[in-house]
């Protein structure tokens, strides 16, 4: 997909989106992996899915028939991000910078739906924030 087509798709989606009511809270551990689950009615034919972190596009999946193509749109996520067969977002080797707001924009033939997530990252000591050095 050409960048101009992707931009037009993003602009179109922002005009017809319906947003889910409350963000789903997802907890992750520093250095581990986490899954942001995508839940969507299978009876609606999905055309595309865009994942965003703090409002910036990080992954785009285009579906055509039985096949799909996923693009990691932000290079800094290239080796840590994957989209599962169910189109959920998997983030590996979590850092504190990964915490924040995530959203997915799902476009079907007739509508666009936005789901939101709040990812919280905890250190091995159970608090939000940078991991503390272990006493030597």
UniProtKB/TrEMBL annotation:
Predominant localisation class: membrane
Signal peptide (UniProt feature, chain positions): 1-19
Keyword Membrane on entry: yes
Lineage: Eukaryota, Metazoa, Chordata, Craniata, Vertebrata
GO biological process, alphabetically ordered: innate immune response; positive regulation of type II interferon production; T-helper 17 cell lineage commitment
Stretches that traverse the bilayer: none
Localisation: Membrane
GO cellular component annotations of the record: external side of plasma membrane
Organism this protein belongs to: Camelus dromedarius (Dromedary)
Protein name: SLAM family member 6
InterPro entries: CD2/SLAM_rcpt (IPR015631), Ig-like_dom_sf (IPR036179), Ig-like_fold (IPR013783), Ig_V-set (IPR013106)
Membrane topology: Single-pass type I membrane protein
Ranges of residues in domain Immunoglobulin V-set: 22-113
UniProt keyword annotations, A-Z: Adaptive immunity, Disulfide bond, Glycoprotein, Immunity, Immunoglobulin domain, Innate immunity, Membrane, Signal, Transmembrane, Transmembrane helix
């Amino acid at each position: 997909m050409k960048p101009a087509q992707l931009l037009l798709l993003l602009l179109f989606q922002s005009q017809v989106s319906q947003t889910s009511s409350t963000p789903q809270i997802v907890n992750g551990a520093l250095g581990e992996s986490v899954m942001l689950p995508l839940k969507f009615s299978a009876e609606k034919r999905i055309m595309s899915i865009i994942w965003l972190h703090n409002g910036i596009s990080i992954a785009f999946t285009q579906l055509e028939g039985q096949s799909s193509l996923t693009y990691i749109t932000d290079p800094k996520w290239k080796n840590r991000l994957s989209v599962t067969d169910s189109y959920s977002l998997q983030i590996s080797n979590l850092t504190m910078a990964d915490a924040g707001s995530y959203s997915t924009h799902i476009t079907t033939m007739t509508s666009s739906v936005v789901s939101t997530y709040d990812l919280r990252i905890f250190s091995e000591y159970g608090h939000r924030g940078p991991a503390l050095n272990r006493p030597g």
